[in-house]
Amino acid sequence: LAEVPVDGGGDPISFLYNAAEIAEKKCFGSLTCNILIPDKIVRKNAREFDEIIAGLPFGVIGVNIFPAFAHSMPQLVWGAAPGHPQSGIGFIGNSGLYRQPQKAVLRAPFN
Q1: What span, in angstroms and rounded, lies between the C-alpha atoms of 70 and 111?
Q2: 88-109: average pLDDT
Q3: Which of 37, 80, 91, 41 has its CA nearest to residue 57?
Q4: pTM of this prediction?
Q5: Backbone angles phi, psi at 42, to 5 degrees
Q6: Which contiguous run of DSSP H or E holds residue 15?
């Protein structure tokens, strides 16, 4: 576990863009990541937030929820992000038989 300072200039979305870049380029692995963010900020910046989530190279992303919960939901995929083999290749789960799933995103409220 490590702590890394991230510059956001007082703007939560700028902070999240910078944190996502650090996670992608400096952290090993591509299984999961977790984002804790108040609902008010997500609603106010919905388009930018969805762009950040879509661009994160992780197999499971938890927004205000522990991402490992996806493992207990057979409809969702669990595994490394496609094209990032540091954490393995392929997914388990996917009982919905989605073609070429990219990731699972879990969201929970944070007020």
Answers
A1: 22
A2: 90
A3: 80
A4: 0.89
A5: -65, -45
A6: helix 12-26
CA 59 – CA 96 distance, rounded (Å): 16
Q: In the beta sheet, which residues pair with residue 30?
A: none
Cα–Cα–Cα angle for 72, 99, 22, nearest 5°? 65
Token pair in block for residue 74: 């057979």
- Measure the CA–CA gap between 54 and 51, rounded to whole angstroms: 5
pLDDT band at 1 (very low <50, low <70, confident <90, very high): low
From residue 48, alpha-carbon distances to 13, 17, 44, 80, 87 in Å are 7, 9, 9, 24, 27
Q: Which tokens go with 58?
A: 């992780």
- Contact in structure between 67 and 106 (CB atoms under 8 Å): yes
